[in-house]
Every structure is written in structure tokens, then in C-alpha cells.
Write a structure and sequence with these properties.
The chain is of the alpha+beta class. The chain has two domains: 3-132, no CATH class; 137-217, no CATH class. 35% of the residues lie in helices and 30% in strands. The chain has helices spanning 33-40, 83-98, 104-112, 120-132, 137-150, 193-199, 202-212, and strands at residues 3-10, 17-27, 45-47, 54-56, 61-65, 70-75, 114-119, 160-167, 171-178, 183-191. A five-stranded mixed β-sheet has the order 1-2-5-6-7, sandwiched between helices. A three-stranded antiparallel β-sheet has the order 8-9-10. The chain is globular.
């Protein structure tokens, strides 16, 4: 089932108070509207009743889509430095729910689920985009690595993240995002064929692939770009 409740929210611009429905657990099989709201960028977003500024509460939820084989624990972007501890916590939670003493039917379901953790809304949305377009998420991170290595201006600011925004007919459109609000700085487009080129040369990318996909946190932020 999907679980949500109202939470107070203070506008950082004018100080006005409002409420937003905060989601703690999403069952996308039973409530597919949540999936679309994440893709559209609308979930947990409201307008300030006073100054009309756009406000959004960061994610802290579990997203389950049995039909698509997804089990994702989404954390606030500010928790990214703690990814190792949160990855371990996520693995323990998944073990408790789907393995160990769980009924056989539940254990069988757990075998079909891909376990991931993400940080920020853009990180969660990126995983859903990968699933929608049948993109291996580890390969996508290697595409980012290749793009950053090829860039004349390598971003190293810890407040910046590179996330997939859109999949076009012949290109992958990424955006550089800044801070917890994930404000868009600038786009970065790379050829769609890079996905196939990387997967066609597995030995060339084997070490890098392992460095960014050693657990449920499959992300470039797991390892530095060299």
C-alpha cells in the first residue's frame, strides 16, 4: 500500500506556513499516479499560499513497483555523504522484508526485484526513466563518466549533480543540478549510441562499472571521476 500524511512546510522566501502531503511508501502497482507525478516533477510540490513560490519537500520514501521489478529507497539529497551507511541499512531492510523468515511467495518476489537507493528527486526520477527506456542504470553512469572526461569544464563542486532529464531519438539529455532544491544550471547532451558503444566494450569499462555499482547505490557519486 501507499502511505502518506500531511506535513507542515515553511516557505524559505517569505516565511509563510502551509501543508504538503508527504509520501512515505509508494506501491506503484496499486497507485500508478505516483510514478507519473515523480516523472512530471510534481510529487510533494506545492505553491506558497503567500508569495506563490514553488516549494517541494525532499523524498524520504520507499518506492515499489512489482510489475517493473523495482524496489527503491529514496533519500533526501543532503543525505548523500552518508550513502555507505544508508546502503547498508537498505540492504538490511530488504533482507528483513523479502528474505530470512519471509513467506516463500514473498521471497520469490524479492528475487525478481532490483534493489536501489537514490538521493533527491532527480535521482529517483532518473531510475524511473532508465526503466521506462530499458537503459541499464550502471551503463548510464558510465555514459556520464565518459561525458565528464570529455568535457572541457569538469564540474567538481560537491553541490552539483548530473542527472538524466530526457531520452531523445538520438541523444541523452542530462542537466547539471545545484543544491538540495536541484536548480537546473545547464544541459548536457550526448549521443544515444554511447550506451551501445560502452556495452560493446565491457572489458574497457569493467573496472569503472564495478566502482559505481558495487551495491544498491548505483551512481557516479559512489566513485570519483578520474
Amino acid at each position: 500500500m501507499s502511505i502518506a500524511d500531511p506535513s507542515p512546510l515553511t516557505c524559505p522566501d517569505c516565511g509563510a506556513s502551509t501543508q504538503v502531503k508527504t509520501v512515505h511508501s509508494i506501491n506503484a502497482d496499486r497507485a500508478p499516479g505516483y510514478r507519473q507525478a515523480i516523472l512530471d516533477g510534481d510529487l510533494q510540490r506545492v505553491s506558497c499560499p503567500s508569495c506563490e513560490a514553488s516549494l517541494r519537500v525532499e523524498p524520504s520514501l520507499t518506492y515499489v513497483d512489482e510489475a517493473r521489478g523495482l524496489w527503491i529507497r529514496a533519500w533526501p539529497l543532503g543525505a548523500l555523504p552518508e550513502w555507505e551507511a544508508l546502503e547498508a541499512e537498505t540492504l538490511m531492510d530488504f533482507e528483513r522484508l523479502y528474505r530470512g523468515g519471509a513467506p516463500r511467495m514473498v521471497r520469490d518476489l524479492g528475487e525478481r526485484l532490483s534493489t536501489r537507493i537514490t538521493f533527491g528527486w532527480a535521482g529517483l526520477r532518473e531510475k524511473l526513466l532508465c526503466d521506462a527506456h530499458d537503459i541499464d542504470d550502471a551503463t548510464l553512469e558510465l555514459v556520464k563518466m565518459r561525458a565528464m572526461r570529455a568535457s572541457s569544464a569538469l564540474y567538481v563542486d560537491e553541490d552539483l549533480t548530473l542527472r538524466l532529464s530526457e531520452v531523445l531519438d538520438d541523444a541523452l539529455l542530462f542537466v547539471w543540478l545545484e543544491g538540495p532544491a536541484e536548480e537546473v544550471l545547464e544541459p548536457l547532451a550526448v549521443p544515444l549510441r554511447w550506451l551501445e558503444e560502452i556495452e560493446a566494450r565491457p572489458m574497457d569499462w569493467n573496472r569503472a562499472r564495478h566502482s559505481i555499482s558495487g551495491g544498491p547505490f548505483v551512481d557516479l557519486n559512489r566513485a570519483p571521476v578520474a
